[in-house]
Amino acid sequence: MKAQRKQRKSELEALQHQINPHFLYNTLTSVKFLVKENKKAEALETIDALIPLLQNALGNVDETITVEREVTNIKNYVLINQTRYGERIKVNTFIAPDCLHYHLPKLVIQPFIENAFFHAFTEKKQGYIQILIARREDRLVCEVVDTGDGMQIDQLTSRKGKRQLFSGIGVRNVHERIQLLFGKEYGVEVTSQVNKGTKVKIVLPLLEENTKENTISKNNAKLRVSGEENL
Asked: 132 forms bridges with which residues in the sheet?
């Protein structure tokens, strides 16, 4: 279990410090274009959106953030992409107000939004991405739903082709990291239909500032006991 946890942390560090060079290049190119077009307000808005995303990527890998901050990161990420590519892919967010104070691990939602932006609309040239975060009983449920191309479920495990993000470090790490932190009753579920779109459901415990450390510690203890029993 220690080896698995160390591996997940190493993968998260790689993910967290991996600023997609194409994303960064495209963002800076967009800013340069906006400045040349004398659209200084839009250029500043794009830079202001990029800065907190970089700060988030350089923070402590073990840190959790509030839903409110995560929503801000999501909106900044969407703004940058729409500055570059226009609004052919529209994004709607539906966040329950009573969830804003809950905590969640870093980078559990953005990989799925990235996947939807860059891989869900290959055949379809426009559509919607909906992001929902709400409390359901004693769970925090986050959903990323797109109206894109969809896929066969067996494609989700493929390491080849345009769907590789579903098996790459980003998405695979999210599911396994959540289960290692909180237990097997939490994690990621993906459903998809060809030509109709894809739905990603992320299930987390309800973590508040004064309870998150205890929750993680208790689940770490359970995982150690389970690991010892299986030896």
From this structure: 94, 143
Sign of CA dihedral 37, 90, 171, 95: positive
Residue ranges in the chain assigned as alpha helix (H): 2-16, 21-36, 40-57, 67-85, 110-119, 169-182, 212-229
In sequence order, the 6+-apart residues with CB closer than 8 A to the CB of 221 are: none
Distances (CA, A) of 185 to 66, 168, 178: 21, 22, 10
The total of structural domains in the chain comes to 1
Q: How many residues does the chain have?
A: 231
Taking only the tens place, the pLDDT of each residue in 82-111 is 887 788 999 999 999 999 999 998 878 888
Q: Is the pTM value of this prediction over 0.90? A: no
Token output for 144: 């990323």
Which residues are 140's β-sheet partners?
135, 204
CATH assignment of the domain containing 39: 3.30.565.10
Lowest mean pLDDT among 1-10, 43-52, 107-116: 1-10
CA distance 2 to 42: 47
CA-wise closest residue to 5 among 185, 226, 229, 159? 226
Contact status, residue 135 vs residue 97, Cβ threshold 8 Å: no
Its domain, for residue 71, covers: 2-229
